[in-house]
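Sequence in, structure out.
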Amino acid sequence: MRRALALLLLAGPVLASPRGAERPAASATSAITTWVLHFDPRLNDLCFDAYADLLAAIPADARILVGVCTPDDAWLFESRLGLDAAPDARIAFVDSGRPVTGWARDRYVVFPRHGRPTLAIQPDEEVEPAYAGDAAVGRALLPRVPGLALLETRLRFEGGDILLSDDRVACGIGTFMANLEFGEVAQVRAEIETLFGRKLIVLGTDPALLPHEHCDMYLAFPAPRTALVGDPTLALSYFDALQELGLEEGDIRGVGTFRRETQLKAAAAYEAIATQLAEEGYAVERVPALHSEEGEMLTWTNAVLERRDGGMRAYVPAYGVPLLDKRAHAAWVRTGCEVFPIRADKIVRQGGAIRCLTQEVRTPPAPPPVRR
């Protein structure tokens, strides 16, 4: 039944893009003016390598807002990163008064809409109690970020399953199906397209057949009409190298147990996504992905991009597996990006990577030229 419904979604009537999507969309990769992090002391040691690398890579003119539960958590963040001795003027803290998770990406989405940065979030009564602190940080950004607009939406989503390119918004079939109680297929499609001002791509035909519940774990849009898609078969060279060295498959830095057979089983789900995006007119570039027996995965698409001084910067996970890190970063370079490796081998144990830890406010789009 679920699969039949999913196929119906994709085969349903194709609507003309709603009025909000008719105009060219603002760039989803313009320069980041404000980075948002959430600091959860319960993750503690797992995050600090990634935070340290981000602070070193983020340009000096960007602001960094860190959502915390209490001032004590702010002190812990600063002291563990050595900022008590050498303060970083870019950093300010947002006290929510409630526990926050480390995943700044999921409870709200900040994106350019109608010429200004916009924060889309569910009404507070719709937010699960465990994530109330995350939502509170999102709302607390409004007085801290000049020009930031608030848009409450009934749509259900996690930011990790929302990906914007310059003229498209993508989400997994699971996110789309979660919103069907609000209307028919065509209505839900129109509502998502109106919210994000872009034509919608629904990824996959069955949530159980997707590589992950969040599309940023297997997909990125590094350039217009270019898709970077994970490919577990590209990770097989890791096992070939082990064999040449006389070593057995197994543990990587305590993250999990990785075996060749697991990658081969996972490959079909990625191939289906690559095929779908090619049919949508995207040039598809492949990047390694590695799945563990325990269900964790090493992903190199879970990255943050921005355009500065005419060039693309990509803040990309690094796992301390040189063979695969090098291959993955080279794929990003082929798409025209300068790569800034961010250590993610510890935080991946919690099921996420670099994009999961961040939220961004970007430079508003330039106004259209005035015709005389």
